[in-house]
Amino acid sequence: MPQKDPCQKQACAIQKCLQANKYMESMCEEVIRNMRRCCDVHRGNSTCCSGFKDSKPTENKNET
């Protein structure tokens, strides 16, 4: 039996969030951060991460 992708849950959460928020990425920042964290850990083992960019946005935009 094939092994489940370790980041599939996070990838699905992004799709669900984007659909629920009319594809406004700013409304889904937390689920996108969760996907980045998962990909940081499982990049070599996750096909879901293959299309996810390596570049990381700043975690806190409001810092001075």
TrEMBL record:
Keyword annotations: Disulfide bond, Mitochondrion
InterPro entries: CMC4, Cys_alpha_HP_mot_SF
Gene3D superfamilies the UniProt entry points to: CytochromE C oxidase copper chaperone (1.10.287.1130)
Compartment annotation: Mitochondrion
Disulfide bond residue pairs: 7-38, 17-28, 39-49
Domain of life: Eukaryota
Protein name (database record): C-x(9)-C motif containing 4 homolog (S. cerevisiae)
Taxonomic source organism: Xiphophorus maculatus
